[in-house]
Amino acid sequence: MSATSRTSAMPPDRQGRPALVLRGLQKLFGDVAAVDGVDLEVRQGEFVTLLGPSGSGKTTTLRMIAGFTGQTAGTIEIDGVDMSHVPPHRRDVGMIFQNYALFPHMTAAQNIAFPLEMRRAKRSEITRRVAEALALVKLDAFGHRFPRQLSGGQQQRIAFARAVVFHPQLLLMDEPLGALDKKLREALQLEVMHISRQLGATVIYVTHDQEEALVMSDRIAIFSRGRIEQLGRGEDLYDRPVSLFVADFIGESNILRGRFERDGGGGWLVRDDARWRVSAAQVERAALGSGSAAALVIRPERLRMVGPDETGATAGTNTIQASVRDALYLGSTRKYELTMMDGRAARVRRQLGGGEREWQPGDRVGLVWAVDDAVLVSDPQG
Amino acid sequence: MAIDSWRQPRRLFLLAIGGLTVFFLMVPTLVVVPMSVTSSNALTFPPEGFSTRWYEKMLTDRQWSTGFINSAQTALLAALLATVLGTLAAIGTARGRFPGRSAVNALILSPLIVPVIIIAIGMFSVFVRWKIAGSMVGLVMAHTALAVPFVVVNVTTSLRTMDRNLELAAQSLGAGPVRTFRRITLPLIMPGMLAGGLFAFITSWDEVVVAIFLTSARFRTLPVEMWEQVRQVVDPTVAAVSTTLLAVTTTLLLLAFVARRQGPAR
Predict the structure, then answer these.
(1) For strand A266-271 and strand A274-278, is the pairing parallel, antiparallel, or unpaired?
(2) Host domain of residue A225
(3) Which residues of A touch B170 (CB under 8 A)?
């Protein structure tokens, strides 16, 4: 979707400014930093996901943006206004919780009307906008029901309608689909994404599910230990992870650990008596000193399998010998689990139906990759 | 089945124990019911004949009917006060963060543990000095203190089972602290307040120890009146009054039970 259509529902005066700016955001609980210096700038109408394992600071960051938790240091700016010390009810953000947090003593329609009543909207306008919001989430006929009379998916749609009905500056979502089953979750992922874009809403979305993040987001911020480890589009994170943590967290990867040695423009990753060539582009990007602990990250679909005697090696490739442990049929692809000569595990994913040779457990093969397909990162544990 | 045969004797044993407990608890209480409809002039069991004249006497006798009104007024006022104060205390101790919070909580709940006679003596000596002993004001204050723990316990339970995210959601939707309390918190803890209030009413309604100390010949509650009467003339009106007290208390307890079951819906 193009940038102009995404921002079409937004008043023109908002368009130049960033929707959200976090600067040096920090939160200490006692001596422990839950969030430790987060900087983030989000454009109007952008869908940004905070992704990370539990305890990485993503939810605490979201709660600080909402104003539920005060920050220890740093500033929060929403649509050009410093909101660092503004109470939550004056921040004009819509929040969606994992457990829906619908008011149990109000009907769906009353729940949706609540933020409009708080803004002292006229009766007739409330009625009209509640009806619109119910239609938006395709629950027109359910306005009179109480939350307990709705399924989990329906409850979350009502919660979504309630959070968008007053056109907040920001839409915050804290693992909103986490409590739903897989099928429903996938359907709602697309729905939330489409409606958010249709409304031109700026969304900050928290999840620990990397697939969800890849599906929904314009950009993803990978959280680790209270910091943003990498911020970028899904493709950036997948193809050009800046660290072993990101490579490991997003998608599957094969990781070869060793010591980096510079050699002219390019270099080598050396381990024991083996060494693999690293492309000049990778060397430049990783900016590692010669002799430092490093790792090569290779995605499972970037590995080719050849017979043990064909080296398959040309100038721009590396090869590792391995044996096939399992060959798993996954419909459109086949996934191979292999054991490399040094005993470590590797995995390869190949498209089926391309006439490519298929391998059986026990086969000995060579794993071949183009040097440009292996990303060089530093290895903090090395 | 194997499991059932293993279970059977245990079940019977439990049933027998439970049945006996209920029997010994209920019978001495319920025995006043048949006694209240006796046609004889003496308080006897089993009753002789059938008559409602002791109920008539209860309603027409000045002493009994004033006692009834005094008790009802005292209990109503004490319940109202206890509900308001107890709810505020519950919110403060459940949500507030201040030093000495658990000490405050223990102090509020202490009337449940401290022997009533000690409370009665203490209050009597203080209230005499304040010149509110022997009046409704004094008794309402004393009963409020006795009843507050029931409200605190019930409301605290409601607050604990309530999802904190509901209040956060309300805030993010534009409700300040006051409106969040009025529109979200209050309706959701209302069943707890109601149950607590009913318990508070009952606490005052049938309280006799503190009431003996804090009432006078001019102001007497129903339980105190019964106590006085039983010591002098034993006529079956006492049984009629007892039955009435029992009926009111049981009804209110059932209502409190229903109110608690209405607790914050998911």
Answers:
(1) antiparallel
(2) 3-92+168-239
(3) 103, 114
| Nearest residue to B106 via CA among B149, B151, B150 | B149
B chain contacts of residue A160, beta-carbon cutoff 8 Å? none
pLDDT (tens digit, 9 = 90+) per residue, B45-84?
788 888 888 888 888 888 888 999 999 999 999 999 999 9
Q: The pTM is what?
A: 0.81
Q: What is the CATH number of the domain that holds B248?
A: 1.10.3720.10
Tell me how far the alpha carbon of residue A376 is from its chain's centroid.
Answer: 21
Closest by Cβ to A68, choosing from B168, B183, B266: B168
Residues A66, B173: C-beta atoms closer than 8 Å: no
Q: How many domains does chain A have?
A: 2
Residues of chain B with C-beta less than 8 angstroms from the C-beta of A115: 173-174
| Cβ <8 Å between B173 and A162 | yes
Which tens digits make up the pLDDT trace of B102-137?
899 899 999 999 999 999 999 999 999 998 888 899
Query: Does A161 reside within a domain?
Result: no
> Tokens representing B9?
């004797």
The overall longest dimension of chain A from CA atoms, in Å, is: 79
Domain membership flag for residue B217: yes
Please state the domain count of chain B. 1
Dihedral sign of CA atoms A90, A77, A12, A43 in order: negative
CB A309 within 8 A of CB A315: no
In a domain, A37, yes or no: yes
CATH number at residue A346: 2.40.50.140
Altogether, the residues listed in chain B come to a count of 266
| CA–CA gap between residue A222 and residue A217 (Å, rounded) | 12
Residue matched to tokens 């046609």: B39
Q: Which residue of A lies nearest to B179 if distances are taken between CA atoms? A: A118
Q: Are residues A348 and A258 in the same domain?
A: yes
